[in-house]
Every structure is written in structure tokens, then in C-alpha cells.
Write a sequence for this structure.
């Protein structure tokens, strides 16, 4: 990967545009061999109201690649680590499968991969990003809910979005400093 | 196309990058400069009619990922869940792996794997036998759109059968006919620039149509276009609309006529346009007088003041207002007239061929391969379409009337049925009748990639190679952003399968029709590529997979010399031809029959992760919809003591099924709904075999009077807890 | 959290680790306390020394085989990450287990040791050396006790910190958990020794029991006065914590917490032990031991200690932020 300590990858989500089509979920499965029944990303659907006054909202979620990732902090072997560009990954060879990181993730973003017998989660498609491509879920999304980029780069669309729009993050109280930004 | 640029590109795109309206391929030019990241093989998705452009990533002869190809403006640089899951079809363990001949009873599932020669010989002998006894018209050739469908049709036609039956009369025959009878063509809707959009049961956010789905979400959420949606169900589309009305099923025409009435009576229509381009406006003005919003309120259940307001807002948005046509119009027996009413409403606000309006399709020029022509069939069609539905397209036929005739053996017996890329047992209403029709056949041959239920009841199953394993003809996708796309082989067939062309050739050889098929797919596409609007088209196509115009052209038909392809050369608000054929020349409303006490209207629809009755079996899609259930309004369910998860028995005059109930607020109390694609008989569709229920079992036989399009929302069902 | 990822193996691990810590702590205490040059409670000290290694050894053994990739467990010791309670804990546990083994060895009598070595195959080179090796034990035992204290306490605390350090789980995320687990560990250890002493056929003296009971009563009271603030503090805390506590106050784990831990596992034994102590407190007469009451009290304490860890491991994972 190109070493630039100054980089910080984040994802901005415009949930209002999410149509719950699951393209991102399936794309991730294909790109990252996610086992059946396990998910690196998912859509939180909320439906409410009474006929005919109804509401539904869809919020995509995945690993938040936290600024202070509690998963990394608790990992006894250092298998969970954070790259200079903020991407949080699991080094398979070092993971003993103690699942402490799973317990420690406020977003339940991690799962135990029965096939590899180690803990698994969203990697922001680091392997694609390192080739200069977008994460699979971002590239495939029909309604462009997802914008990925380097927040330190003023030319990056994420930068522009966060400058120009109001947004929120999930569970800020955990102090993890999540890096998925949800536009309001 | 080099996808490495995306990070920088979206950078350049700035805000717009999140907007669906900014296709990323725009800075393609720059792409040339940079060295390419792992390049995919460009091809075209086959899992639904949209044919999105794909870049297939291959490693050691195995496709491991399909990425969207941003070069196609029509697919807006996306791939939906189904497109992403296509890989699983190729490596599906239950896939058809070689030709099969039935040895047990039909549907018993006893198969003999055979060589292609055996399969061809067997099928050819059966077809000949039928031909001898009943003539070529004794054979029926039915299929659904697909790039190799042409070879299947050509085989049927060169065999001499008039009975070529295609899917439109299950899908969009009525809407297409309604718009072509009005404009002489079927236009597209410029949702990327529209300011006011009304959709009646066009569930765009679950029933994906490119580029409409993406343009609409961008339009609604970013460009703040007003979006009004009518649907008895609270769909995902409804959840995104500014206004959703659970309209009384079958009453859409009343809503539209009332809008027209308001717009005309309040002088809000586009006079200049109407005077210059249309025929019969005065008759219309007279005709709609009784159709007041107050009258429509009683029909639709939508308050008169809302209808009036919407009509005004719509008219004020002028040529940037569209009442979207919809695609699956196999709804009601008056569907044609309802779509005519839409066409007329669009006409009077003058949105024709304007930015943000209703725009006639452009095409990308392409060559044709010249093959030896055959004589026209001697016999007339068994569905008697020319007689019964003179206005509709005879070449595609009308499915349900045809089945009625075949079952009666009228006007002549049809004893062999060849089926391509179609699953009539699920996609044609009344499965029982279709089964009966199959049982009446001396021979059934099915060309499919999976053991569909229809294949399960066939005598011979020809396994076609998956789209990732074959090269298909170049197809032109007309539209505001027209494209010509190529589907090229990505991996060698992993089983003993063949593309339709080779299957046609195998049969043609034995039927003495080889002369009509003495060419290769390469010669075919070479001829097609010749006239593409790019330098050495074939190489370009193989490298890019698509040739497209990314800049819309508006107003090409808005000039003094333009003649609409109608009898009068004008937009026919009033249609002489309809009158001559004995139909209402102006859409006249008849109140739909409502379900009697204790019955519910069954309505149909889609889900983003499934295509029709297919795909529910693919693991990556199946895990999102393991089973279908019966949507029933919470209050109705409560009255019958039905709770979500309870097993219910649903019955109509056509049949009875059992499935779990879903008590939900998200549907009108007088309707029930179930997803398509479950309750499969074929055990080779592992995860949906006997799971949930098949809606086709319940649907009764009914069709649109003018087009002969199936009417699939005319069935009333009884629901009881078991 | 949808399905809990940590289950009974972790519960056992935390419980057994704590139990060993407790047993060792009390045993060491009895070694260290002296009356005229002699360990005050030699029988307790010895019993504890011999018992201490086995629970923790079993616990760690089980845990390692529960790991996704157990053969990689050595990686735990290839690194030391002071940020990670589990990393610190693993080291603590390893050293502690070692210590308890050495300590147990030190408490063996000469013939016991010989009997032990006699079992070793004769050809082993160092066999003879071991048999001839007779360290100056009295001193050893005390030093081991001194060295052992911090590790025992450390392990006791660690079993709580492992959970308490997880911010993501409001049910856990308070320093009270570490204290609660520590005292519960020590109390379980004491109870284990009461059991051992009651069941021991050999001679007993009341002083021993008086000591154990006093200790246990104090520990149980400490535990109780941590549970109370834990609940009260939680109730006054942020919504997420209140919701988390809901799990034990009218939620999925309410019965386990009250009906299995607090009442039978904490208050009941306290009551029994106080009852036995009644004469001493009231000044008239001495403590007298009813065998069955003693066994019951001790059994309940240990049971309560187990349930406490069960409730915390499971309820904790069920808790989270909105
Ligand atoms: N109840 C109900 N009926 C409906 C509809 C509904 O919504 N509900 N919708 C209607 C509409 S709009 C339409 S368009 C029709 C669609 O009608 P169909 O075309 O019959 O629908 P599918 O279920 O997609 O069936 C497609 C078949 O083609 C096979 N297939 C897929 N790819 C290939 C290929 O590359 N080669 C070959 N040889 N076979 C292939 C699939 O395995 C499947 O068996 O259904 C209509 N009928
Ligand atoms: N994901 C996905 N996308 C697809 C397809 C697919 O199978 N899956 N198929 C493609 C094809 S071939 C087609 S034809 C199109 C079909 O796409 P659409 O034209 O959108 O048709 P349906 O998806 O069948 O949606 C019909 C909707 O109309 C509602 N409805 C029922 N009765 C009435 C009524 O009386 N009035 C009104 N206003 N609404 C009513 C139903 O509740 C349902 O939501 O989708 C295309 N896109
Ligand atoms: S692909 Fe985009 S629209 Fe579809 S579910 Fe994912 S985020 Fe939502
Ligand atoms: S979301 Fe969870 S897994 Fe991802 S970085 Fe934050 S704590 Fe770690
Ligand atoms: S499971 Fe693996 S990654 Fe997670 S904490 Fe344990 S060792 Fe680290
Ligand atoms: S970024 Fe990559 S790994 Fe993360 S959810 Fe999207 S596709 Fe999956
Ligand atoms: S919409 Fe989805 S299934 Fe249809 S062609 Fe495009 S990618 Fe394929
Ligand atoms: Mo269709």
C-alpha cells in the first residue's frame, strides 16, 4: 500500500437513499468470501406506524473503523490492528480466536468465521483500496448511498459531503470514535 | 475501462459523486492515461431485463467477482444484488450439467443423462412426428427475452410454426400497446430531470429498472423532485415517496381521469402543444367532464382535495411532470385503457420529448447479420390473435388466450411445446391449467440453465451454458441513454452445456434446416459490430462491452416535419383505430368488481433480491428471503385470529396453497400479497423446493380486453387459518 | 448482542481462576500469620497449598481448547500488550499457576515427595537429584506466600477486569466489577477451605473455623456492599447502563441474579455463618460448628460465586449502547 500516514479513510452514508436492495451485502460476500449466514455489512431496517400512516427507514452498517478501536485495544495477540490510514484489520495468522474483540466491539461488527476459524469483519476492502479501487459495497450500490474516501484530502468527496451537510455517528458515547458518517 | 481512477475521480466529482445523476464514466477520457488495475472482462448481466454492464474478474479460470462497468450510462455504474450473485449460478451444484431425457412419468423426476446427439435425435424425431401428424403449426415455441432468444425463435419459424409465443403478454403488452397507439412509439421517462413524478404501482425501488431506479432515488432525495406514489402496499418505493396513497386496487384510471378533468377544466394544460401535436382534445374535454375529483374519491379512496391539488401541482410542473408508465402492466382487464389515460395525461401537460419529460427512445445503430430467410408459415396462429386482438403485436402472441385454445384443441391441435428461458408453470397464471396443457403434449423440450419446475415436467432438458460461459449477439438497449452491449464469454463452460445457437444448430441439422443456421456467433456479432458508431467496433466492444451515448438528446421530434407513427400522424388522444376495433376511443372508466365479503384481492409484486420466479434458490439471495409468506392487513388477520407465522390456507377458483401468514400494517385490508418464486416442485431447486407457496397456483385466467395481456390482479382468494 | 460469543467455558474459566486465587490467598495468609514462630493455621495453609493449583490449571486448559485456533495459544505469550486485559491476565495466570505448583510442592512432606518421585521411571536422569533435594522448607513456604499474594490478588482482580475493561458493554463497564469478582473469589476460596476442613477426617480445632468464618463473613459483607452500590450507581447512571441493569432487575437474568446468586449464594450463607457465630458475638460461649450447616454455607458460597460469573458473562454480552 502507498504509505501516507496522513491518510484517513472514512465512509459517508446517505441512508435516506438506501432502498434496502442488499446489493452491497451480496457484493461483499463475493468480494470477501463471507460465509453464508454471516455478514460484514448489513442494513438496519426500521418500520413503524399504523396503516395508512407508515414509515420505514434503512441504515446500512458495518465496521466503523473507529478512531480508538476497542477491538484493537483488547486483542491479546495484536492480531487486530489499525493501519496508518485508519483501516482496522485482523491479521489471520496471529488470531487465536479468543473472541475478546467481538465482545469488545460496541457495534457487533465482528463475527467468528467458521471457515477460517478466526474473527472476521469489514476491512473497507483494503485490498481493493490499496489498488486504488473503491470498496465493493460502495462501487456496486445502485443509489449511491455510500461514499468512500480520504477525509484528510480536501478533494475527496467525503470531505465535501461532511463540509456541506449535517451528519451523525452511531453510539458516540462509547468513545470509539466511529468513522461511518450518516448524513442527516 | 480503468477502475483505479475512482478514488481520484469521485474526488473530482465532488458532491456530485454521491449523486446517482453523475455517472462516473464521465471522466473516461482520463482513464487511458493511467495503467489499469486488474481489468475485468466486460460483459452484460443476464439476470433480469436490464442487461447491466459487468466487468468479470477471473482468477485461474474461475469467476470470483463481478464488478459494475461504469462505461454504461444506462446501468449507472451499478450492479444489483442479483447481478452480484450470478457467480453462484455457474458453480451451483444443482445446476443442469448435461442433456437429460425423461424416463419416468412427467414430473416424476426420473432422468437419463444423455449425450447431445441423443438429445438432438430424440427431440428432432418427436418434432418431426408432430409435424407429420399436425403440420408445423402443431408445435409451440415460447420464450422470454434474452440475447440468444433470436436463435430459438428462428428455429421455430424456420420449422414453419406460426406459434411463436413471447413473454410480453405476461408483462408489458398493454402498456406498450397503449403508448404506441397514442404516440406511435413507446417513450422513456426522464426521471433524472423530472420535477414531479407520479407512479402508480411501479415499484421502482424494488423492481429495478435502469436507469429509472437510480435516477428516481437521486431525483427524489437530491434534486427534490416531488414524488407521488399509488400502491395498495407500503413498498420500499412508498417509503421514499413524498406522498403515498394506498389506492383502491383497479381504480387508477379514475385517479388519472380526474387529474385530466381538473387540468382541463382549470385551463392548466399546454394549449400550444395540444393544438399543434394532438388529435381529439375537444372530445377528451367533453369526455372527462363527469370525472370530477369528488367522483374519483369514491372510486379510489383518495380525498378529492388531494387529487385536485396533485393535478394542479402536476400541471404547474408542466413538461417536467411525468406520470410514469410502469412496466409490468399485467394487472387488470382494463389495463390498456388505464395506460392510455396515463399517456393522455402526459400529453396534455406537454411533457413530450422535453427534458424531464416523456422522451422517445434513441437507439445505437448496429448492423444485422443476414441469414437465409424462410417462407412465412401457412397456418395462422393458434391464439387467433389477428382476430381476437387485431391491435396487439401478432408476432409475440397472447399467452392466456393461446392456452385456452390449445386446451380446447382449437382451431387445431398443438402437440409439441418447445420452451426457452421461461418457466410457464410459475409465470403464467393458473398453474393447474398450464400443467394440463403440458400433459396434453406429445413432446416438451425445455432449454434452461437450471432445473426449473417447467423443465422438471419436460421430456428433454437442454442445458444452456450460463451467460458467463457464452458469447451472445450484440443487443441494443433503446432509451434516453441508449446503449449497445455485448455479452462475451468470461469462462469456458464448466459442464457439458451449449449456447442456444449451438442447440438450435444441433436440432436444425436433424430437422433439415441447417441452411438457416450455417454461421457462427462470431460471424453474427462481427456483422452487428460493423455499423456501431465507433472505430473498429468489434475490438471496441470486446474491450469495453458497451457503446453508449451519455448525453441525452431532447426535442428531436418537436419539429414541423415530424409525423408521429400513428394513423393521423399526430398524438392520438382520440383513437379512430380503437373505435374501429370496437374499443373505447377514449379511456372510459368502469368500476372494478370488488372482492365479496371474506375474500381478498391477490396482488403481485417484486423484491429487489429476486427475479420473477427464478433466483430465490441462490444462497446469497435466499438468505435474505428464505420463504415467502402471505401479507395480510393486521386488522383482518386479527379478526380471523391469524398471527404472523401461522399457517394459512389460501384458495381461489384456480387452486389452493398453504403458507405462513405475515400480519402487517403495510397492505390494504382488502388485499393480500405474496412473493413470486417459491413452492417449487423441482427438488433441484434445493432451498425453495416445497418451501412457501407458488402464487401461480392461485391466479385465475383473465386478460386485458384490448392487448390480450394477462390480468394478474383479478383473483379473489379466501384465507383460513389451519 | 445477538448470540453470546462467550459462553460457559469463559464462566468456568473465570470461576476456577478466581477459586484458585482465593484458596491460595487464604492458605498464604495462614502461612504468613504466625503465633510464636509457627504458622497459626498450618492445616488450612497446607490444605490450601495442595488445592490451589488444580482449579486454575483446569480452567486455563479448558479455555485454551475453546480457542478458535487453540494450537496458536502460544501467541498469547509471544507478545505482551499492557492495553489488553487478556494479555496481562494470561501472563498473570501462567506465573500464578506456576507459583501454586511450586508452593504445593513445597508443602509436601518428605515421604510424600519420595512417594511422588517413586512413580517416575527409574531411568530418568534427574529423578535421583529430585529425591535428594530437600530445601529448607519453613522459610520457603513463607517466601512463596509473600510472592504469591500479589499474584493471587491479581488473578482475582483480572477475572473481573477482563469484563470490566470492556466499554462496549454497559453492564460491565464499572470498576466495581473487578472488586466484586475479587472478593467473590476470595470468599469462594475461603468456602472451599471450610469444606476441606469440615470433610477432613483428621483432627480439627475451633480456632481454624473461627478464623475461616470471620474471614468469610467479612468477605461476603464486602461483596454485598459492592453489589448494592453497583445496582444503585447503575440506576442513577446513563440510559444504556440503566437498560443494561434491566437485565437483572426485571429482565432475562433477574432470577439467576436474585434467586440464585444474591439470596442463596450470598445472604443465606452469611445468615448461616452469623447464626453459627451467634454465641461468640453475644459474648456467651464459643463458635460451634454444625457439620451440615457448615457444608451448606460453604457450598452455597461457591455456588453463588459461579452464578455471579454466569450472570455477568451472559448479561454483559446482552447489554450494549443504543
Ligand atoms: N405470478 C406472477 N407471474 C408473473 C409475474 C409476477 O410478478 N407474478 N411477472 C410477469 C412478468 S413481468 C414477466 S416478464 C414474466 C417472466 O416470466 P419468465 O421469463 O418465465 O420468468 P422467470 O421466472 O425469470 O423464468 C426464467 C427462466 O429462465 C431461466 N434462465 C435464466 N437465465 C437463462 C439463460 O441464460 N438461458 C436459459 N436457457 N434459461 C435461463 C431461469 O432458470 C428460469 O427458469 O413473468 C410474468 N408472470
Ligand atoms: N428486482 C427485480 N427487478 C425487476 C424484476 C424482477 O423480477 N426483480 N423484473 C423486471 C420486469 S420483467 C418487470 S416487468 C418489472 C416490473 O416492475 P413493476 O412495473 O414495478 O411491477 P411490479 O414489480 O410487479 O409492481 C407492481 C406493484 O403494483 C402494486 N399494485 C397492485 N395492484 C395495484 C393497483 O391496482 N394500483 C396500483 N397503483 N398499484 C397496484 C403492487 O402492490 C406492486 O407493488 O420489474 C423489472 N425489474
Ligand atoms: S446497496 Fe446501497 S441501496 Fe442497496 S442496500 Fe446497500 S446501501 Fe442500501
Ligand atoms: S466497529 Fe468494532 S470492529 Fe470496527 S473498529 Fe470499531 S470496535 Fe473495532
Ligand atoms: S479473536 Fe483474534 S483478533 Fe479477536 S481478540 Fe482474539 S486474537 Fe485478537
Ligand atoms: S468495505 Fe468491503 S468489506 Fe467492508 S462491507 Fe464494504 S464490501 Fe464488505
Ligand atoms: S438490474 Fe441487476 S439483475 Fe438486472 S441486469 Fe442489472 S445487475 Fe443484472
Ligand atoms: Mo416483465
Amino acid at each position: 500500500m502507498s504509505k501516507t500516514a496522513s491518510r484517513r479513510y472514512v465512509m459517508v452514508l446517505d441512508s435516506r437513499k438506501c432502498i434496502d436492495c442488499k446489493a452491497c451485502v451480496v457484493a461483499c460476500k463475493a468480494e470477501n468470501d463471507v460465509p453464508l449466514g454471516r455478514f460484514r455489512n448489513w442494513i438496519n431496517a426500521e418500520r413503524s406506524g399504523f396503516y395508512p400512516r407508515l414509515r420505514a427507514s434503512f441504515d446500512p452498517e458495518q465496521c466503523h473503523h473507529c478512531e480508538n478501536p476497542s477491538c484493537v485495544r483488547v486483542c491479546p495477540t495484536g492480531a487486530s490492528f489499525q493501519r496508518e490510514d485508519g483501516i482496522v484489520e485482523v491479521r489471520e495468522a496471529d488470531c487465536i480466536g479468543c473472541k475478546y474483540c467481538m465482545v469488545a466491539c460496541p457495534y457487533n461488527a465482528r463475527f467468528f468465521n467458521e471457515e477460517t476459524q478466526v474473527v472476521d469483519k469489514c476491512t473497507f476492502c483494503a485490498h481493493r483500496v490499496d489498488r486504488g479501487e473503491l470498496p465493493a459495497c460502495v462501487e456496486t450500490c445502485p443509489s449511491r448511498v455510500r461514499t468512500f474516501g480520504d477525509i484528510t484530502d480536501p478533494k475527496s468527496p467525503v470531505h465535501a459531503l461532511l463540509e456541506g451537510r449535517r451528519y451523525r455517528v452511531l453510539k458516540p458515547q462509547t468513545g470509539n470514535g466511529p468513522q461511518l458518517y450518516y448524513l442527516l | 475501462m480503468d477502475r483505479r481512477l475512482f478514488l481520484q475521480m469521485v474526488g473530482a466529482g465532488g458532491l456530485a459523486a454521491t449523486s446517482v445523476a453523475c455517472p462516473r464514466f464521465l471522466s473516461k477520457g482520463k482513464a487511458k492515461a493511467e495503467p489499469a488495475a486488474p481489468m475485468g472482462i466486460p460483459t452484460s448481466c443476464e439476470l433480469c431485463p436490464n442487461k447491466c454492464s459487468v466487468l468479470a474478474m477471473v482468477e485461474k479460470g474461475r469467476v470470483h467477482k463481478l464488478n459494475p462497468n461504469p462505461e454504461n450510462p444506462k446501468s449507472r455504474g451499478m450492479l444489483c444484488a442479483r447481478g452480484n450473485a450470478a457467480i453462484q449460478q455457474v458453480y451451483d451444484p444443482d445446476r443442469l450439467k448435461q442433456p437429460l431425457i425423461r424416463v419416468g412419468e412427467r414430473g416424476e423426476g426420473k432422468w437419463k443423462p444423455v449425450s447431445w446427439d441423443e438429445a438432438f435425435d430424440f427431440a428432432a424425431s418427436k418434432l418431426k412426428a408432430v409435424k407429420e401428424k399436425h403440420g408445423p403449426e402443431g408445435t409451440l415455441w415460447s420464450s422470454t427475452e434474452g440475447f440468444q432468444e433470436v436463435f430459438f425463435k428462428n428455429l421455430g419459424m424456420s420449422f414453419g410454426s406460426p406459434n411463436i409465443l413471447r413473454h410480453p403478454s405476461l408483462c408489458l403488452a398493454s402498456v406498450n400497446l397503449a403508448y404506441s397507439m397514442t404516440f406511435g412509439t413507446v417513450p422513456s421517462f426522464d426521471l433524472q430531470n423530472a420535477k414531479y413524478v407520479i407512479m402508480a404501482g411501479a415499484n421502482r425501488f424494488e423492481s429495478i429498472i435502469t436507469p429509472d431506479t437510480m435516477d428516481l432515488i437521486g431525483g427524489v432525495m437530491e434534486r427534490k423532485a416531488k414524488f407521488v406514489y399509488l400502491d395498495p402496499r407500503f413498498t420500499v418505493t412508498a417509503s421514499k415517496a413524498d406522498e403515498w396513497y394506498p389506492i383502491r386496487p383497479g381504480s387508477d384510471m379514475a385517479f388519472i381521469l380526474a387529474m385530466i378533468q381538473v387540468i382541463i377544466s382549470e385551463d392548466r394544460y399546454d394549449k400550444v402543444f395540444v393544438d399543434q401535436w394532438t388529435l381529439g382534445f375537444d372530445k377528451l374535454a367533453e369526455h372527462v367532464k363527469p370525472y370530477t375529483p369528488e367522483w374519483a374519491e369514491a372510486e379510489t379512496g383518495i380525498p378529492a382535495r388531494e387529487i385536485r391539488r396533485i393535478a394542479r401541482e402536476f400541471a404547474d410542473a408542466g413538461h417536467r411532470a411525468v406520470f410514469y408508465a410502469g412496466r409490468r402492466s399485467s394487472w387488470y382487464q382494463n389495463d390498456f385503457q388505464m395506460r392510455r389515460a396515463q399517456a393522455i395525461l402526459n400529453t396534455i401537460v406537454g411533457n413530450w420529448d422535453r427534458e424531464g419529460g416523456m422522451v422517445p427512445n434513441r437507439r445505437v445503430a448496429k448492423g444485422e447479420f443476414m441469414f437465409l430467410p424462410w417462407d412465412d408459415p401457412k397456418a395462422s396462429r393458434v391464439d387467433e390473435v389477428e382476430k381476437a386482438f387485431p391491435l396487439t403485436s401478432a408476432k409475440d402472441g397472447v399467452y392466456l388466450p393461446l392456452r385456452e385454445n390449445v386446451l380446447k384443441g382449437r382451431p387445431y391441435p398443438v402437440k409439441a411445446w418447445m420452451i426457452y428461458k421461461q418457466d410457464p408453470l410459475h409465470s403464467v397464471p393458473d398453474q393447474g391449467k398450464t400443467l394440463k396443457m403440458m400433459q396434453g403434449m406429445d413432446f416438451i423440450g425445455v432449454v434452461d440453465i437450471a432445473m426449473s419446475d417447467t423443465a422438471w415436467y419436460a421430456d428433454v432438458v437442454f442445458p444452456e451454458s450460463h451467460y458467463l460461459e457464452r458469447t451472445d449477439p450484440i443487443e441494443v438497449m433503446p432509451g434516453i441513454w441508449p446503449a449497445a452491449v455485448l455479452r462475451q464469454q468470461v469462462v469456458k463452460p464448466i459442464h457439458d452445456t451449449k449456447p442456444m445457437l449451438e442447440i438450435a444448430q444441433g436440432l436444425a441439422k436433424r430437422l433439415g434446416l441447417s441452411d438457416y443456421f450455417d454461421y457462427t456467433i462470431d460471424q453474427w456479432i462481427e456483422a452487428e459490430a460493423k455499423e456501431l458508431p465507433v472505430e473498429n467496433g468489434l475490438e471496441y466492444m470486446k474491450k469495453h462491452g458497451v457503446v453508449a451515448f451519455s448525453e441525452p438528446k431532447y426535442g428531436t421530434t418537436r419539429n414541423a416535419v415530424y409525423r408521429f407513427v400513428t394513423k393521423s400522424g399526430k398524438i392520438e388522444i382520440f383513437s379512430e383505430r380503437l373505435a374501429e376495433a370496437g374499443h373505447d376511443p377514449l379511456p372510459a372508466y368502469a368500476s372494478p368488481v370488488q372482492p365479496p365479503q371474506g375474500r381478498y384481492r391477490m396482488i403481485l409484486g417484486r423484491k429487489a433480491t429476486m427475479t420473477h420466479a427464478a433466483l430465490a434458490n441462490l444462497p446469497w439471495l435466499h438468505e435474505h428471503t428464505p420463504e415467502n409468506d402471505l401479507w395480510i392487513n393486521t386488522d383482518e388477520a386479527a379478526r380471523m385470529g391469524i398471527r404472523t407465522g401461522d399457517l394459512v390456507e389460501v384458495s381461489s377458483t384456480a387452486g389452493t396453497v398453504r403458507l405462513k401468514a405475515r400480519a402487517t400494517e403495510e397492505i390494504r385490508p382488502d388485499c393480500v400479497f405474496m412473493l413470486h418464486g417459491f413452492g417449487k416442485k423441482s427438488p433441484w431447486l434445493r432451498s425453495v423446493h416445497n418451501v412457501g407457496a407458488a402464487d401461480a397456483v392461485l391466479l385465475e385466467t383473465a386478460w386485458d380486453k384490448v392487448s390480450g395481456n394477462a390480468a394478474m390482479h383479478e383473483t379473489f382468494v379466501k384465507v383460513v387459518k389451519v | 448482542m445477538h448470540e453470546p460469543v462467550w459462553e460457559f467455558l469463559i464462566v468456568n474459566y473465570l470461576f476456577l481462576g478466581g477459586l484458585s486465587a482465593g484458596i491460595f490467598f487464604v492458605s498464604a495468609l495462614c502461612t504468613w500469620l504466625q503465633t510464636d514462630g509457627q504458622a497459626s493455621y498450618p492445616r488450612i495453609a497446607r490444605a490450601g497449598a495442595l488445592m490451589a493449583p488444580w482449579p486454575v490449571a483446569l480452567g486455563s486448559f479448558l479455555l485454551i481448547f475453546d480457542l478458535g485456533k487453540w494450537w496458536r495459544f502460544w501467541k498469547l505469550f509471544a507478545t505482551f500488550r499492557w492495553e489488553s486485559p487478556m494479555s496481562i491476565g494470561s501472563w498473570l495466570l501462567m506465573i500464578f499457576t506456576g507459583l501454586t505448583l511450586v508452593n504445593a510442592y513445597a508443602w509436601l512432606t518428605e515421604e510424600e515427595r519420595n512417594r511422588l518421585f517413586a512413580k517416575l521411571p527409574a531411568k530418568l536422569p534427574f529423578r535421583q537429584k529430585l529425591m535428594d533435594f530437600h530445601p529448607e522448607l519453613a522459610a520457603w513456604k513463607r517466601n512463596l506466600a509473600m510472592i504469591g499474594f500479589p499474584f493471587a490478588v491479581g488473578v482475582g482482580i483480572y477475572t473481573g477486569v477482563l469484563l470490566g475493561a470492556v466499554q462496549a458493554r454497559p453492564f460491565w463497564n464499572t470498576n466495581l466489577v473487578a472488586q466484586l469478582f475479587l472478593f467473590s473469589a476470595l470468599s469462594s476460596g475461603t468456602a472451599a477451605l471450610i469444606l476441606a476442613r469440615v470433610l477432613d477426617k483428621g483432627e480439627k480445632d475451633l480456632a481454624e473455623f473461627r478464623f475461616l468464618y470471620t474471614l468469610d463473613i467479612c468477605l461476603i459483607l464486602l461483596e454485598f456492599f459492592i453489589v448494592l452500590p453497583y445496582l444503585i450507581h447503575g440506576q442513577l447512571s446513563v440510559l444504556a447502563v440503566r437498560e443494561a441493569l434491566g437485565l437483572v432487575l426485571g429482565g432475562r437474568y433477574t432470577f439467576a441474579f436474585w434467586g440464585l446468586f444474591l439470596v442463596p449464594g450470598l445472604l443465606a450463607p452469611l445468615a448461616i455463618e452469623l447464626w453459627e457465630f451467634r454465641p461468640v458475638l453475644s459474648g456467651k460461649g464459643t463458635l460451634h460448628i454444625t457439620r451440615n450447616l457448615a457444608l451448606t454455607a460453604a457450598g452455597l458460597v461457591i455456588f453463588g460465586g459461579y452464578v455471579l460469573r454466569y450472570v455477568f458473562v451472559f448479561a454483559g454480552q446482552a447489554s450494549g449502547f443504543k
Notes: The first strand of chain C starts at residue 34 and ends at 35.
